[in-house]
Specification:
CATH topology of the largest domain in chain A: 2-enoyl-CoA Hydratase, Chain A, domain 1
Number of strands of chain A: 11
CATH superfamily of the largest domain in chain A: 2-enoyl-CoA Hydratase, Chain A, domain 1
Distance between the termini of chain A: 27 Å
Order of helices and strands of chain A: EEEHEEHHEEHEEHHEHEHHHH
Radius of gyration of chain A: 20 Å
Number of helices of chain A: 11
CATH class of the largest domain in chain A: Alpha Beta
Largest sheet of chain A: 7 strands, mixed
Number of domains of chain A: 2
Helix content of chain A: 40-55%
Oligomer: homohexamer
């Protein structure tokens, strides 16, 4: 993706490269390819910051997230780094278990909220998964709106293999983004691998492309397509779909009505209708 | 479907033809084929009224909903009519945005509650989708219990293309009636078309037939099949499945127990058991 | 499965045979093959007791549930026995309908809570379905974590055919364990049969094997695989996935953090990490 | 209240007199004083219609509800009429209990939704209770926003005394509008009387006045006071308080933000601020 | 209360004396007065069993719960016994904290479910509190329907004083049974004493009587009063009020309609109406 | 309160003075007395930061919040400053209403989350209210755990008087912290003043003291009392009470069990029990 324009507002981040393949689209790359893009604490804190910034950046209308290098979207948590930082193995040993629990709870809260920033980002996020996609890779992908995979992607909800239940979102979100609970239990309780074809068949990803390059190209096309629509319509749609997941239909309908009470007052509606009639492409103001 | 018997109780509706292909089955047709069955306000108000009446009509045990003509189930909202009526583009211009918002909110509430009448109808509703199925077509179909498609059906959650988030139910219900959240986000955020095969693969429809005629025939068969069962059992099943969608398993089990505390006192239970033993078809009283 | 070791602690049950195909795995067989494993009240009460015991039995880390004999997982409720016991047809006739309703409600509550014991069991439960799987078979299977089928399995949500809405859990759980609501409504409202291939395509089961023997072998392998992992990780994963189903993502993330605040203090984490480094199989203490 | 202006738009109702004591205020009187304002089906249907109309009537900004005559706000359900109509004692006797249950359920639904119209009315409703206030009186009052009592008011949640649990809203709402669950259980389980002082002490009413005349005068003053404020602010406040009752704080905060995103665009905000500065009374446009 | 009739069906319990002060009323006494009625594990298990039995005992229509002796309703957990049993201080020391946590969680679950049996009991439960009412005393009382106090009652949510957050129900229920959150936080965070007058003012109890004897007499009167009403009405009222606490008004109204669909078919309704007309006391059959 | 020790870690804040009246207690003063402690955006952002820091500061075990000066806790929003900053009156005028709505929604979200930091603070917060307590004063106080008032406190939910519904938390929290919904509606819909006696009677505050000085002294005593207890017990109690408010009893009991599974492993439990026996004051480690 050589031609991508760097986005200066995101130049300060160390672990993520953010460029723009086309107007209104941001491409965020996890950039630690020599370590299979494995995450240490500094990285997930930065990930949260990047997506919080994207959420309020009115120049950005759609986001693509991928991993740098050929081998991995991300191999997940860098367990060695985590052990050294003490965030997993608990640090200061002489605390009583209740006090240690408070530390762990706060750490997990912080970690979760960095990853949830992807879901809370007001713009659609398309996640491109290739190569190794383990553990945290699934937590991250579950927060994206659309998931695409390269054919070489190899997934696993790996956490039980290191003696823990996944706690950064996979167990909370995966059952709500695919159809088969039996399959979810199978992959989460066994930590077994699954490939792109299985991910597609189960609805975890919605398209499989030949390789990372093709998957990225598809993601850029999709993001460009979304970014040309009315941002009032697109961002409202994301918000309302996320709200629906966690509420009754009755509640969701009500919230939708209140949301659209303002959103329907956008000029985009007339512009879109008029453009449709005139068979030309409308352009919409920033949101 | 020439042989269908008209249902006199529904003769007064202007935009919907309601007939009976067989005992206990009502067939409701959206009847504005020259405009691709596109909806204006009068139509959706009538749709609500038709289904409210069907819900309490003890002669009806199952309903089939389809669109008249060869070209469309429905092309969705008649945007031109809506603009003239002011329900979309907001009418009286000199209100402040808060007052306009109140108008929009009330209009959306009214509109939603007309369409939700399909879901609230106590009888099972089978929706037959053919040809063009855009925007409101999806909102309507999401309220039905079973969705069948003709092979020529072409679907789109079209709303973002006219600058708005869908607000009549698609965003509230679609994520709960198919398995893949990635696919839902894809079709809702892009407004792209999808065909019958994709709709089947994703579980949006549960069967695809060769053409509208075949799909209708299948729907009539299915509806007839349902209408011959105990209406206490069938209508209870619909209610309990709809309740389950919006409640925890614990809540749903409790509600089920309370519901069946009365329902199990039906004579249908003995009649069904006896008929099973005697290998004859039972008949059940109206509900 | 001749080589299975009997589990003495479960020898007292009359209607279920519980053996151990391998360390940490319990195999529970519904044992009334001459009646197609159909359930009477004594059986479902015992089923609840068996799973409550398994839940707290620290020697057991995974459970396989199947039906004895070649013909049926279970044909469901033994309607004849139920009629004699009065639990379905209501017993004492001279009660007024409100008093009868109280009886029915309490019976359904008791029955539900026996079957829910499978879901509440803290260990993963793999259900192997073969031959006839009707009515209660689906209620039971919906409580398991993973569902496997033999190719000859024939399923039906049969209750409407005996004049009642299913009330032991199918209507509460089935919509939440498969993706397509249209399919769920179809099979629940018609009581029609579906086979193993359809069950797999819809995500109700996650694997189909050639015959019961192969399905059991696969289940034992899967159970053995799970039972060798850290029980803190595996049982936590089951709990968190079940919790997620009935809560918002926000709630689920919070609960996960609190759960793992204690669970991450397990020695299993270090043991698993170390074993991974040393490329040997770890062993974990009982939980 | 002789000087009240009749409101012609409400002249068609038979059982309710609607007048206007001051600009923007509607006074609805239950008008069957010779029968202690006891309700038959025609009355509660009309009550629903009156409040649905008030909700959308932009000339009305606050509503006072009271009972005509000196003796009763309302003695509740006219049991004799209900028995004749069959809505309580069940009508057609030869239905089986399941079918009778469906009738009862639908009747209760309809009845509830007529009474809930008071709660759903977008304008604040002040209920003035005097004399006899039994059964349905409490259901109705629980739907109002503010409850005032005359000193002679005598209340009872009377339903258990006629062999039934209250089903038109008291049991759903009363526990949420007063503080002491022990008191709620006491009055609901015993059907005992309580007087105005007790009602005040428990927070059921928020003020007690000397007699009906004084209570009405106070209600008119309060209603006039509310109707002079910005209707955007007042109606938003009612909506948000009702929403809060049934949602988590998190949900409620979010809904509030979305609601006010439009409401804060009202001109009323500037007008109110400016008027405050200029120490004059602002006037606000209809909503 | 010397004249009370023993209830033979409850004679087998060791720690609770169950008698009947009048027809249909059961009086359960916590019977360990020499230890201030402090609870050890055997006691709370028995308490659960007593209330489960009362719930299904059709001879019982209302229950009074009190503590034997002059000095205490109950001083709460017998901390010394608990420490010996290991249920609080954790028993087997060489488990890792995750495994210990599983033990604690299961113990708390069991303990909670014994106490919750009071709330789940289908009959109204009136709790009479006198003398010392500490810790578990509050958990227990929160499960009752009506709380009465003797003037000498001294209450405290004592748990923080022994280094723990109350976990048997007080923190879950107390905020929902009184009005002032500030007061709840005050007494729960400080563990300070409060007396009967304060308990009454805050709505925790609904009546204060001169001494234990007077409070018991009042409770028996109240229980007798309730037990003479239709049990269909009374038990339905309890159920619906408990349901309302944990559900939205919308949900609660719906549940109420379904509940009463069966309950309104009771003969008690006619009997009650007729008795009212004839100004005689009706009698109602068992439920 | 001259003797209070400054807390250096909080010296960098401009608008809040944070001192320590006794070990483990932090006293936060809103410090803009010349403007009646009215808030501009910089202040509420800082308030959020202060409480986020207190939440994780293990040297602090209880917090007292009050307003500097004699005249006001806070007069609420500094409307003039807000108008200049554009956060209320909407800033950039040429945006369409949908885009303006997005700005308002984000501003309200940010504002809410700063104030909610008080509620989310893991330590108990005691709010001392004196003099003028308008608008935002109520939003802030609703987030505290315990509310005390000086006799001169004058409260109002003032927002409707400036043409808006309160959106920073009052409408979401007030109905859940006092008992009488009628009173809540009264004060929120009219914006009328209420005094300390009324606040106490309604349960909004739990104690009224003679003047600010006495109220502060009481708050310091209360905070010191709480800070001497086990922080594991105190902070767990706060968390569990806040959780209970927004969940069913069933959910809350379960969460409590999981929470205490770790918390009961604290050494504080033994220390507290032992100290009780030895009748000496225990000391507890930081959390």
């Amino acid at each position: 993706m050589s031609a991508a324009t760097p986005l200066p507002a995101y130049a300060g981040y160390k672990h993520f490269i953010t460029t723009s393949p086309s107007a209104g689209v941001a491409h965020v790359e996890i950039n630690r390819p020599d370590k299979l893009n494995a995450f240490h604490e500094g990285m997930w804190r930065e990930l949260g910051a990047v997506f919080n910034q994207l959420s309020r950046d009115s120049d950005v209308r759609a986001v693509v997230l991928s991993g740098a290098g050929d081998r991995a979207f991300t191999a997940g948590l860098d367990v060695k780094a985590a052990a050294e930082e003490g965030s997993i193995l608990g640090g200061k040993v002489n605390l009583d278990p209740a006090r240690k629990a408070a530390r762990f709870r706060r750490s997990v809260d912080d970690f979760q909220s960095c990853i949830s920033a992807i879901e809370k980002c007001e713009k659609p996020v398309i996640c491109v998964m290739h190569g190794i996609c383990l553990g945290l890779a699934i937590d991250i992908a579950c927060c994206a709106d659309v998931r695409l995979a390269a054919r070489d992607a190899r997934f696993a909800v790996k956490e039980v293999d290191i003696g823990m239940a996944a706690d950064i979102g996979t167990l909370s979100r995966l059952p709500k983004i695919v159809g088969s609970a039996s399959w979810v239990k199978d992959v989460c309780l066994t930590a077994r691998d699954f490939n792109a074809a299985e991910a597609l068949a189960q609805g975890f990803v919605s398209r499989v492309l030949d390789d990372k390059k093709a998957a990225l190209a598809e993601a850029f096309k999709l993001a460009a397509f979304m970014s040309e629509k009315s941002p009032v319509a697109v961002q409202g749609t994301k918000e309302l779909l996320n709200h629906a997941r966690d509420h009754t239909v009755e509640d969701s309908l009500r919230y939708t009505g209140v949301w659209n009470a303002a959103a329907l007052q956008t000029k985009d509606l007339q512009d879109a209708l008029l453009s449709n009639l005139q068979r030309r492409k409308p352009t919409f103001e920033k949101l």
